[in-house]
Amino acid sequence: KFIKITGYVNSDPSFKDHPKVINGASDLLLEIFGEKGRHTRVAIGVSSLPLDSVVEIDFLCEVH
Predict the structure, then answer these.
(1) How many domains does the structure of the chain reveal?
(2) Which domain holds residue 49?
(3) Is the pTM of this model over 0.70?
(4) What is the Cα–Cα distance from 62 to 37, expressed in whole angstroms?
């Protein structure tokens, strides 16, 4: 079960659509896992990420 995802978007300071970028991860989890893919989330804009990545996603999951 996915509890929460945090998405970091490497972007220009003028960019304001961080949640739209992270929608792709949320949609994919729901498509693959159905109801177990439901989660809360946070989308954060940053000025850089390791290895010049564009997006970094952190998952908090519960495993039984």
Answers:
(1) 1
(2) 2-61
(3) yes
(4) 11
